[in-house]
């Protein structure tokens, strides 16, 4: 079975990066290393710390012509090969891993990517002394075929083509442009492409060599900058069981080794790239506009159609980049600052290639559209389950009349399980209920606090108005208005929250109601089983206790607020009274006291002595008005009580 | 002929012109080995001009001298950026803007200033400092707006500073060049916003760029149409159907202009071009299909109740609502996005008339949109034939099927609805049968699933029809059973596609197929439960099979708890069924053999 695990049908794109050693030219020139391989998976581009190069001990101070800030970017890949890695190492971690899949009938694709001179060709082709991935792949493949030749007949065929300027050419024979088409049985087909049957790995190498000479831009010619030619080498493997049976098992798989065009200005060619500039000669077409617009729409979504623009390569690889295909990408970079931009672009591109994985996955059967249908199914199924349950109950009852120990035990057990389940549900319901009540009371408390504070504000301001100069009053009014506005917004906010909580509570109540009804169905005679009944009661009381506790706590905090206010008032009063008396006496001594002052003072005295005074007709009104402004403190201190009924209403 | 006022000396003008030709025209012919040869020659010439100018400078009018120098700095700046010498390029461009700063709003400087800022924007974007690029480009945009508000006369083109007086450009030409520079500003901004992932803004600027290309006749019809069609797909994702339709209508209208291709020498080439044109046309048709499909599907989402049926209350509500807001809203939105000059605009509007951009609320309205979509399906299929374009062709057929599916939602009559699903089967089944899953695994799976679901839906409908009858007749029962069997068959085919070459079902499912596989298992379990038979033994067998599939789900999730997330609802129901079915089977068995 572990083998099956290995052979999972879908696999994501594996991205590896190979850093080649510095060339002589790079070593001699005023260049530094801009790629630092941290370990087998991580590399840092344009690292911050000044590394001292051990080989020639050059000072690095004059490295940065552009005085650029160090990018210091960390990249993580499936594998990173440092300068000193061997061809064999690269092979072991790349193509070798897919050869098994290839032999099992899966298509495989290996993409090599990188600027000219970054070591791409070396990695793929290599030299006779140090052969590259392609050669090693073929060697291994022939070895494998040799091992299974007893059981299977294997046929290998290869083709080699080039995509240049949106035209496809056969590299193994002289041909005009070829057309790509999809066939529903054979997949992607290049019409007129020649297939060759090499006998050995060596012969394949010869073919590669021959084909390369035919390429529009010779890949090994370093001087040829900006190669826009992609080379695609494909190996077809056909296996057939030797055992003569009627339904002969035939497996065909295709391995594509692709040398992607140089990346110097490759950002132009890939859809996501940064093509900003229009050459002065391009007047009418804003090339990149298409790219931008393409990027706006989401290509992963099947809900939109994005017209493809001229990509023969994409079409060619349609059956090789997804589904049952395994894909490896080898990005080749130079470590030298001489190729700073190329390296950066390549790494960015490779980094993005990691995402191809997700885009492939999202391609598989989408089930989004079935969601509504789903609810239907679920409803139906629930009905069915309910019906089954009912039938079972009937059955149980019948069984109950015929005492059968075994069945009864099962039933009892069943009910026990159900009860346990409902206990769990109740726990959840009440946990939720508790939470809501807690929040609700808290909001309530805040609201009350707010009301009190508003009231204090007003009172305080009233006092200032009575006492202070106009200027001060104005200032205070300003301040008060500000505070009141603040309190108001806060209140509105709280009010909204309170409404929400009330709503939540209602929801919870109807949930509880449903649960109760369901529990009633569980019992024998339309009553909730005793055990659950107790449980329910317990939860109710628990909630009530918690509620009351919270209320007490909130009340205390309100009290302390009130107390503060009271103390403040007391202090004012205690200061005022002696002052009043003193001034009154002074007035009297000076003989300035008249009837009004006498009366007023008398009134105050009466109030202080807590005597019931004569009520004047015009004063009554005033008092009543005052009361309208005043707060009903008891109302403020009262919290809404939790009503609990034996049966939660609907 | 010393500097002073008036035109620049003839020698200077000549050199300047040569430099520009070198850099714009000759450089295209440079060999790959020396890609910048002409650019370098142009640079040398510009340097010469600069020297000649500074020699002649004495006594000249300070401002005129400054502006001419700014033009040279600009050309040198662009030249350096073109040859990948960004730092030097930046210096020149900065010097240019410094020289112009005081006069930037005057007609002889504004165009140059905007172009210098455009190029600074490009330069910084090449350094990956998108934010800096953004500030330059936005300031260019602001300058354009300010100039147009305060002055608005066609300003001088930078090259005019090195042109003999009699060769000065006409106002029309000046305006054209100035607007082009500004179009470029917008176009670069679109890219900047896209890079900064300010998608909405990017879309808006793309739209404006397209609009301006049209206004100033600077476009290739095919390319423009394709861009507009693609932009329509962005609007779809934002549910802006009116904008989407406008883009598509404009795309179709502009595309029709491209019909007459200038005759090429080579016959092959003509053929190739015709082929390309046909493909582009089909691509636009496909964008239209998506438009119709999305409009219908969005309407469905608005109208459906929680079990996916049409909700008549919602329908009435939406109809009333639509009456109210229809007019004002649409007109208000429209002005901002309208493409084209009057004659194009008329054709675009006529094109728009053909299909609605408001949500269809009943079958009649839905059908009209469906028919338009279906027409485009035919058009797209004409080019994207199975033979040669397998994946494209199938995608179109899938869309066609989706069109039928969503139309069925609006249909009240169950029999007719069933027929629509049958149409889906009829188009999908033959395609599936002809497809090699080795190369088209993904599509093949999609088709299996869709076929299974369609059969399932048909069975549901037949059951619903049957429930209305007094008693199920044997014909209906047969029909229901055969539909269920077919649904099972396709779900099984899907599950089989997950097996490895040795036909073993994977022990652990890949993340991407986990949900589909589980849903398939779950549906099969249910379908076995739905099969109708009078034979109790058979029924028992079906129940047993059903139980096995439910058990698979439960066991799998127990083994791989990670999977629970993907199939919570199904798992819950499966657990219940696994709990209930055995007892029920027990009972059935007891009924079968009461004496055991």
Automatic annotation (TrEMBL), chain A:
<dbReference type="Pfam" id="PF00225">
    <property type="entry name" value="Kinesin"/>
</dbReference>
<dbReference type="GO" id="GO:0005634">
    <property type="term" value="C:nucleus"/>
</dbReference>
<feature type="domain" description="Kinesin motor">
    <location>
        <begin position="12"/>
        <end position="356"/>
    </location>
</feature>
<dbReference type="GO" id="GO:0008017">
    <property type="term" value="F:microtubule binding"/>
</dbReference>
<protein>
    <recommendedName>
        <fullName>Kinesin-like protein</fullName>
    </recommendedName>
</protein>
<dbReference type="InterPro" id="IPR001752">
    <property type="entry name" value="Kinesin_motor_dom"/>
</dbReference>
<dbReference type="GO" id="GO:0005874">
    <property type="term" value="C:microtubule"/>
</dbReference>
<dbReference type="InterPro" id="IPR027640">
    <property type="entry name" value="Kinesin-like_fam"/>
</dbReference>
<feature type="binding site">
    <location>
        <begin position="114"/>
        <end position="121"/>
    </location>
    <ligand>
        <name>ATP</name>
    </ligand>
</feature>
<dbReference type="GO" id="GO:0005819">
    <property type="term" value="C:spindle"/>
</dbReference>
<keyword id="KW-0206">Cytoskeleton</keyword>
<keyword id="KW-0505">Motor protein</keyword>
<dbReference type="InterPro" id="IPR019821">
    <property type="entry name" value="Kinesin_motor_CS"/>
</dbReference>
<dbReference type="GO" id="GO:0003777">
    <property type="term" value="F:microtubule motor activity"/>
</dbReference>
<dbReference type="GO" id="GO:0005524">
    <property type="term" value="F:ATP binding"/>
</dbReference>
<keyword id="KW-0493">Microtubule</keyword>
<keyword id="KW-0547">Nucleotide-binding</keyword>
<keyword id="KW-0175">Coiled coil</keyword>
<comment type="similarity">
    <text>Belongs to the TRAFAC class myosin-kinesin ATPase superfamily. Kinesin family.</text>
</comment>
<keyword id="KW-0539">Nucleus</keyword>
<feature type="coiled-coil region">
    <location>
        <begin position="378"/>
        <end position="439"/>
    </location>
</feature>
<keyword id="KW-0963">Cytoplasm</keyword>
Automatic annotation (TrEMBL), chain B:
<dbReference type="GO" id="GO:1990535">
    <property type="term" value="P:neuron projection maintenance"/>
</dbReference>
<dbReference type="InterPro" id="IPR011990">
    <property type="entry name" value="TPR-like_helical_dom_sf"/>
</dbReference>
<comment type="function">
    <text>Activator of KIF1B plus-end-directed microtubule motor activity. Required for organization of axonal microtubules, and axonal outgrowth and maintenance during peripheral and central nervous system development.</text>
</comment>
<comment type="similarity">
    <text>Belongs to the KIF-binding protein family.</text>
</comment>
<dbReference type="GO" id="GO:0021952">
    <property type="term" value="P:central nervous system projection neuron axonogenesis"/>
</dbReference>
<dbReference type="GO" id="GO:0000226">
    <property type="term" value="P:microtubule cytoskeleton organization"/>
</dbReference>
<keyword id="KW-0963">Cytoplasm</keyword>
<dbReference type="GO" id="GO:0005856">
    <property type="term" value="C:cytoskeleton"/>
</dbReference>
<keyword id="KW-0206">Cytoskeleton</keyword>
<dbReference type="InterPro" id="IPR022083">
    <property type="entry name" value="KBP"/>
</dbReference>
<protein>
    <recommendedName>
        <fullName>KIF-binding protein</fullName>
    </recommendedName>
</protein>
<dbReference type="Pfam" id="PF12309">
    <property type="entry name" value="KBP_C"/>
</dbReference>
